[in-house]
Amino acid sequence: MAFSAIIPSHKTSSLIKISIEDPMKLTPFSQINLVPRKIQASQIANASLPQAFVSKDGMSNSDPLPAFNFEEYMADKGQRVNKALIKAVPLKHPMQIHEAMRYSLLAGGKRVRPILCIAACELVGGEETLAMPVACAVEMIHTMSLIHDDLPCMDNDDLRRGKPTNHKVFGEETAILAGDALLSLAFEHLASKTTENISPDRVVRAIAELGSAVGSEGLVGGQIVDLASEGKEISLNELEYIHLHKTAKLLEASVVCGAIIGGGNDGDVVRVRNYARSIGLLFQVVDDILDVTKSSEELGKTAGKDLVSNKATYPKLIGLDNAKKFAGELMTQAVEELAYFDPARAAPLYHLAKFICDRDN
């Protein structure tokens, strides 16, 4: 019998359903069925730590989620990722391009995507060292997307992570090239630095997964539809398409690549994919909420910009309260996917989901 995992969305939005049929075959994103469904979202305030996970056989697991120091985990993993990134992009000739690459890559940030990648690798029994190259690759791609997203021809932002955006410091030409260089380096780094202990098949699968997250059916696809939608009235389904591709797809690839490199089987990969899609959309819903509830100083970037540009957001389409309820529902769905794994190994991913849900910048 196939195991079905579902990620329902709010009201007239869509239902993403993935079934595990063939243990050797991964389900491509383009082949996922979208089925309309109406749901009720839970209150975001109710997204609290569960007392226990549900075991694989559907019975209640009496063991509570182990105690976990999330702040210490994030600080430790973030520091390790930062060291790896510094080493991956040294200052060398041509200095200008490497300075620009490092300026945005090392500008801080929570390193959510690379840490998700490492946590997923460890979830399925792998080690941090196995996942570090792909974790760095994910952050390089994410940084590229931020540099390009901030350009005058895109979102035209002057502030990122509390600092002037790349093109404000280095000029538009250098910023574009810095993003291009980081994108190229990401795949080179993943292919050349992943340990020989990982089978070539898994490395190729990780490269393909990451590539699909960036291209016309991933980040670029979401971005182009987003640009075409500015100033227009769009449906909730169209808004979800934008965010599932522009934001969620790279988060999804981060987690899936970690599970692939860590040795996860097909069932593991599908479940972490569903988890990642929930938190990927959650990330954007929370972003939309923060944009209308926080200041630029609190966010570290320009606040209220979506409202000024008449951009479609979840608060605009369904209201602030319903957006918060939807965020709570997505958090619940993400946690449910973790029920199939060892609670101790799943704890970082649970807390990462809660961090995304509860963050204030």
TrEMBL record:
<dbReference type="InterPro" id="IPR000092">
    <property type="entry name" value="Polyprenyl_synt"/>
</dbReference>
<keyword id="KW-0460">Magnesium</keyword>
<dbReference type="GO" id="GO:0046872">
    <property type="term" value="F:metal ion binding"/>
</dbReference>
<comment type="similarity">
    <text>Belongs to the FPP/GGPP synthase family.</text>
</comment>
<keyword id="KW-0414">Isoprene biosynthesis</keyword>
<comment type="pathway">
    <text>Isoprenoid biosynthesis; geranylgeranyl diphosphate biosynthesis; geranylgeranyl diphosphate from farnesyl diphosphate and isopentenyl diphosphate: step 1/1.</text>
</comment>
<dbReference type="InterPro" id="IPR008949">
    <property type="entry name" value="Isoprenoid_synthase_dom_sf"/>
</dbReference>
<dbReference type="InterPro" id="IPR053378">
    <property type="entry name" value="Prenyl_diphosphate_synthase"/>
</dbReference>
<keyword id="KW-0125">Carotenoid biosynthesis</keyword>
<keyword id="KW-0808">Transferase</keyword>
<dbReference type="GO" id="GO:0004659">
    <property type="term" value="F:prenyltransferase activity"/>
</dbReference>
<comment type="pathway">
    <text>Isoprenoid biosynthesis; farnesyl diphosphate biosynthesis; farnesyl diphosphate from geranyl diphosphate and isopentenyl diphosphate: step 1/1.</text>
</comment>
<dbReference type="InterPro" id="IPR033749">
    <property type="entry name" value="Polyprenyl_synt_CS"/>
</dbReference>
<dbReference type="Pfam" id="PF00348">
    <property type="entry name" value="polyprenyl_synt"/>
</dbReference>
<protein>
    <submittedName>
        <fullName>Geranylgeranyl pyrophosphate synthase 1</fullName>
    </submittedName>
</protein>
<dbReference type="GO" id="GO:0005737">
    <property type="term" value="C:cytoplasm"/>
</dbReference>
<dbReference type="GO" id="GO:0016117">
    <property type="term" value="P:carotenoid biosynthetic process"/>
</dbReference>
<keyword id="KW-0479">Metal-binding</keyword>
